[in-house]
Amino acid sequence: MPADRAPTRIQQKNRAAILDAALDVFSAQGFRGATVDQIASAAGLSKPNLLYYFPSKEAIHAAVLEQLLDTWLDPLRALDPEGEPLEEILAYMRRKLEMSRDLPRESRLFANEIVQGAPRIHDVLSTDLKQLVDEKAAVLEAWADAGRIARVHPYHLIFSIWSLTQHYADFDVQVRAVLGDEDPFAAAPEFLETLYRRLLTPPARA
Amino acid sequence: MPADRAPTRIQQKNRAAILDAALDVFSAQGFRGATVDQIASAAGLSKPNLLYYFPSKEAIHAAVLEQLLDTWLDPLRALDPEGEPLEEILAYMRRKLEMSRDLPRESRLFANEIVQGAPRIHDVLSTDLKQLVDEKAAVLEAWADAGRIARVHPYHLIFSIWSLTQHYADFDVQVRAVLGDEDPFAAAPEFLETLYRRLLTPPARA
DNA sequence: GTTTGATTTGACCAAAAGGTCAAACGCACG
DNA sequence: CGTGCGTTTGACCTTTTGGTCAAATCAAAC
């Protein structure tokens, strides 16, 4: 790879193709399961050519992961402390569910990484992620204090949104094996909306 | 390996040690990520010695997986159509949560397999698992028909129990990174019980 | 159109990893 | 206490895989 100058058109195209191919392969096979050859041919390149753009398999993985983390937390960041509590939470859940439907590879890449102990992103989890969740949990707590939502453990509430929505991407094959023909994303939104409305609607005032 | 006779004490001990070590390694690294050497040394054996008991890495993995599937569905099987609906569902959720706490390796092995497309257990999912879920979903449906629980999509209800409980095992490092010192399993049972009580308590009679 | 730097490739290397085998070892039973 | 079968191992083989390199090719600026 040439020095750091403005990337040529070819560089842009090939780097993008590599990252996309790598997302495909890493999300489907995990880091160790993926081979450089697989990624290269999925990107339409030879292995040495791929390694002309990235110095190593590790580097490709790091790049894909960095790109993912960049957007992964956006839905939670967008939870607005000034908004209507229940609607904000429902909107967050919907955004996460849409990500499971539209970006399942990203979800599975993340799942692969976490399930195997998050060796490469443990830092981000305990700093950036923790900080963000702490902040939003405080918002949820304040809403409960104000009686605007029912009081539940705010961290577990957030975990529940993660697990319920990501399940449809990460465990896709299981869900589809059980549902048969039915599209998982047909009934999921309504089910989850009902669930969170019933969980969080504040008790009637005395 | 000698012919199929009654297994000697040494055979029993070593096979058990291998399966336990393999569960350790496979659940932490996935199939491709695990090496036969790792499993062997985790079991306190040399690689050729391990391969004296199992013919291949695949065979070890199959054995571990088979052992897992054998018990993985027990909690759902135990859901009693004759029991009190809400209590039956809560008890099922609790059993699954206990499995996440007590058998996290098993949960992660399963998660690894599913996330990567379940190449080796797809059959079981679309036959045994589907059949069991169909059966229990019908029970849930009947309970809703009788007005004994609120009506929700029975399949998604089951998915929700899977995802909410397994999350604590599969995403353990993330949960702990966010919670800091707090034990995830301290508040989870109450949170989940509240969630399902509010979701499923039938609407007051008119 | 030639030159220069970017891009691509075939050939190659070394390490890792799954698996084999013959020989050595050891336990238990006659 | 020796023999036979179950067990263990060191040495070795082959394939896969991450990575290198020099040479060939291509694109575009001059």
Automatic annotation (TrEMBL), chains A, B:
One GO BP: negative regulation of DNA-templated transcription
InterPro entries membership: Homeodomain-like_sf (IPR009057), HTH-type_TetR-like_transc_reg (IPR050109), HTH_TetR (IPR001647), Tet_transcr_reg_TetR-rel_C_sf (IPR036271), Tscrpt_reg_YcdC_C (IPR013573)
Annotated GO MF terms: DNA-binding transcription factor activity; transcription cis-regulatory region binding
Domain HTH tetR-type: 12-72
UniProtKB keywords: DNA-binding
Protein's UniProt keywords contain DNA-binding: yes
Superkingdom: Bacteria
Pfam families (alphabetical): TetR_C_3, TetR_N
Residue ranges of the annotated DNA-binding region, renumbered to this chain: 35-54
Protein name per its UniProtKB record: TetR family transcriptional regulator
